[in-house]
Amino acid sequence: MKTGKAPESVLKRSVLKQIHTRREEVLLGAAVGEDCAALKLAADEVLTLSCDPITGTGKDIGKLAIHVTLNDLASSGAEPVGVMITALLPKTVTEPEIRQMMQQAEAVCAKHNVQIMGGHTEVTDAVLRPVLSVTGVGKVKEGALISTGGAKAGMDIVMTKWAGLEGTSILAKEKEAELSARLPKQLIKKAQDFDAMLSVLPEAAVAVKSGVAAMHDVTEGGIFGALWEMAESSGIGLEIDLKKIPLKQETVEICELFDINPYGLIASGAMLMAAEDGNRLVMDLERAGIPAAVIGKASAGNDRVLYQGEERRFLEPPKTDELYKAME
Q1: Are strands 131-141 and 156-160 parallel, antiparallel or unpaired?
Q2: Which residues, in sequence order, are CB contacts of 107 under 8 Å at separation 6+?
Q3: CA 44, CA 62: separation in Å to the nearest integer?
Q4: Quick check: pTM over 0.85?
Q5: Using CA atoms, how far apart are residues 267 and 120, in angstroms rounded to an integer?
Q6: Tell me, what DSSP letter sits at residue 13?
Q7: Cα separation of 218 and 225, whole Å?
Q8: pLDDT tens digits along 188-205
Q9: φ/ψ bin of 289: left (φ > 0), alpha (ψ from -120 to 50), beta (otherwise)
C-alpha cells in the first residue's frame, strides 16, 4: 500500500465493516472523517481510560491489543465500554491482513460487549511490522474505583492463573520452527493456546465483589515487574515466596531453551491482587473456576524480599522484558 492514511475504500471495507458490537453509552462512534468518539455516562459513574501498544509480536496482534487494554480497565474495577485503535502499518501490509486484525479485535470486543468507537489507520515506513495502540474507555461507580496503590501492610498478595502466559504463547507461535526441533509438538500447541487465558475480566469481577483492596494486571516485566509496581505504587514492602508463584510446565521448558527468566516474562492473563483475607479471595476465585494462590504478604517499610526455601534476596525494579531477549 502507499504511505499515508489507509484508502477510504479499505477503511470502509476492511476496518469499519468488521465492527459490529454497539453500546448505548456511545453517542458518536467510528466513521469516515470522525475525529472523536462520544460517551454518555450516568451522574454517579466515573470514566476510566487506559492506553497500550502491542509491539513485541505480529502474531494475533488484534486479539492481544484488545485483551491488554481491557485488562487494564478491569484492574481498576471498571466495566470496559469501548476502545479506540491506532493502527500503524508497514507498506508491505495487505488488505486481508488489515481485515484479519480487525476481525480479531472485534471478536474479543464482542465477547466482552465492548464497542470499537474509532481510531486511525495509517500506512507508514516508520514501522517494519504492524503496531496497534489501543485506548480503552470504561466506567465504574463512584466510590468503587480500585487502584494498583491500594495495598496496605499486612494484606495478603494473591495471584491468579500462571506467570508468563502471554510470553509463552507468543514464543510458541513466533519461534515454532525453532522449538519443534527441541520440544514435543503437543507441548508447543498447548503453549500456543495459552492465549485463550489472557483476559482477566472474570477474576476482576469476582475480586470486586470479594472486597479486594488493589489490583494490577501482570504485563511487561512479568510477575516480578508487577510486584514491584504494586509495592512502589502502594508504598509498601513485600515478602514473596517464589515457590508459591504458579508456573506452567510449558513456560518452564520454553524459558529454559531460551535461557530467560519466566518471572520476568510478559504475563497478561494473570492478575495481582491485595486483600485483607487472601484465602477467602482465593476460594471465591476458585468457586468461579479461576485458579489463584496466596503468594506472600505486604509489609511495612520498603524491603521487597523474595524467598526460596532458605535463600533470601531482594526484588529489583523492572528490567527489559524477557520476551525481547528471546526474540532477538
Answers
A1: unpaired
A2: 63
A3: 33
A4: yes
A5: 28
A6: I
A7: 8
A8: 999 999 999 999 999 999
A9: left
